[in-house]
């Protein structure tokens, strides 16, 4: 029933609970689990009191979130973390993991 499960993680307790549920589903149905974390760009312009956040900074933070989540379940497959629009990255990830976009 659940062959491929895409789980968005952000380091929160809610995403940890979602990951626990997804792991249970994957184990119950022999499915494959993929983790995704997206670092959204800040919606403001950098200024003298606002540090500049680069895409590399966002990708590094997203990688750390995925690594922490994957450490809880070592047999979890991983997807490369991204920065930018969470909706766009989730759709792109779904296309890569399932071959579909809808």
Outline the structure in words.
The protein is of the alpha/beta class and 102 residues long. The protein has one domain: HUPs (Rossmann fold, 3-Layer(aba) Sandwich). It is 47% helix and 16% strand. The chain contains 3 helices and 5 strands; from the N terminus they run βαββαββα. The strands form 2 sheets. Strands 1-2-4 form a 3-stranded parallel β-sheet, sandwiched between helices. A two-stranded parallel sheet has the order 3-5. It is elongated, with a radius of gyration of 15 Å. The two termini are 18 Å apart. The relative contact order is 0.21. The model has no long low-confidence stretch (mean pLDDT 75).
Strand percentage lies at 15-25%
What is the element string, with H for helices and E for strands? Answer: EHEEHEEH
Unreliable segments of 5+ consecutive residues: none
Structural class determined from secondary elements: alpha/beta
Strand order of the largest sheet: 1-2-4
What overall geometry do the principal axes of the alpha carbons give? elongated
Number of domains: 1
The gyration radius over C-alpha positions equals 15 Å
CATH class bucket? Alpha Beta
Mean pLDDT level: 75
